[in-house]
Structure formats: C-alpha cells, structure tokens
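Handoff note, outgoing to incoming analyst
You'll be picking up this chain. Sequence as last confirmed:
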Amino acid sequence: MSKKQQILDAALQLFAEKGIEATSVQHITQAAGISKGAFYLSFPSKESLIKEIIDSFMKEIVTEIDRIVNGMELPDEKLRLYFHAQLALLEKHADFAKIYAQEPMHALNEEIMEKLIHYDAWIDRSLLSLLDELYGEPLRGRRYDLLISIKGFVRIYSQLVLFHPYPHDIEKIAELLVEKTNVLATYSQTAYLTEDMVELSMPGPEEVTTQEKLLSVIDELLEDEQHPPLISESLSLIAEELQSEAPRRAILHGLQANIYDYAPANWLSYLLKKYEQKKSPDA
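Most recent structure output, in case you need it:
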C-alpha cells in the first residue's frame, strides 16, 4: 500500500470517529504511522486531503453509474441498478457519508463545491440518457422534472439508510423506487422544468479528458507497485500509446479491456472510454 493510501485510510477512520474539524494532521500522521513530512509530500494541507477523499468517493459513483447506463441489461433493470448503486455506495461509505452530511457547509470551499457540481452534472447526463432509453419520446417534455424527482427519491432514502438504525433492504428500496419512477413517467402529464430553463453547463467528462490528465492518473496508479503484472504492463502501454503522435483508438480500447474489472483502475477506465469517444469520428 502506498503512503498516500495509508494516509487516506487513516484519515477516513479518524473522520468517522472524531469528525473532520476535530481531526488534526498530527492525529492522521500518528494513526498512519508516518511523519508530518511524509504527509505533506502527499498532501499540501488537510483541506487537500479532504478534496481527495470527496474526489475518490464521487469518482466511484460516476464510474458505477456510467457502467450501468452503458451496460447490456434491459432499461428497466438499468434503472433498478441505478437506484441500488446509489444507495449501496452510500451504505458502503456510511461513516464518511454521515460526517460529510453533518459537517458545516463552510468546511467546503468554492473549489470543492465546484468539483461536486461537476460530478453531479456528469451523473445527470448519464441519468438523462437512461430516461431517454427507458421512456423515449413521450417523456421528452417532462424528462427534467422526472430527473429532479429521481434525485429527490435518492436523497430521501439515502437519509433513511444513513440515519435510521434499523436494518434496510437495499434491493427492496431499489425496486420500490423503480415503481415510483414508472408511475410518475407514465401518469404525470404536467412539467415545470423545460429544456430552455435547464442547462447542464458544467463541462462533461469528455471535455476534461486530455492526454495530460490521463497520464497523470496513470502516474498515480503506477506509484503503487502492488498491481498484478498484466495491469502494470497495460498501464505502461496505455501511457506509451497516449504519448505517441497519434494514439490509436483500437489499441487503447484493447488495453482498457485489460483493466476494466480492476477496481483501482476504474476511474482510468472510465476516462479512457470518454477519451476514445471524443476521438472517434462517430462520437
């Protein structure tokens, strides 16, 4: 495990126990068994560490939602998987999610808020794509209202899962939310939000997926020497291909398949797919 990951793991545990404000850099370094100098080599400040944790959490959500929306399942099943993924990921990261929900908003500076808005817009794009696939043209004038309703469902049931101490059946909640969504999509005839009123103005992932960004992500992954040989070799070959004058889409696609199911490389896999789509003449 890299020192950076040691710090992240120790910080998450302490944030869960003490809260973000009450946890100092010294607390984190003691728990991680490293010096303050080693901490500041990985993170310039405690604030940058918090950004990294939020970044990691949101990347996992964005990647999982994208996989669901672009999967081979039937649209109805994709919607169920969407709800299940949102709730399951919050349950998986429950300790930090609770702290994050309860921390004062002044703890989030403008840069962090901007990151969250970007990620939220990416998820919205994926969800709109799924709604178009599921309900088609009849929903066209009501798609944004349904999008807002779905996000409301997720928010309300997330609070239930996080803060009510009795056992929850995520599968049952996901099925329930599919039913509620289908009822709204089928029987609701009025809409407030129009295409002109709503703008997903934040850049989508394809707009920020540059060769430099991809190479930076690969460099971070290669800092950890514990990858299986096929993964390490694939990462090095992806970096080599990206640095060529004309990166070949077919080669990148083949190498991306090697890392697709390797969890630490999920975000890179996601960005590579968006990069390929941006470079494709059919995209």
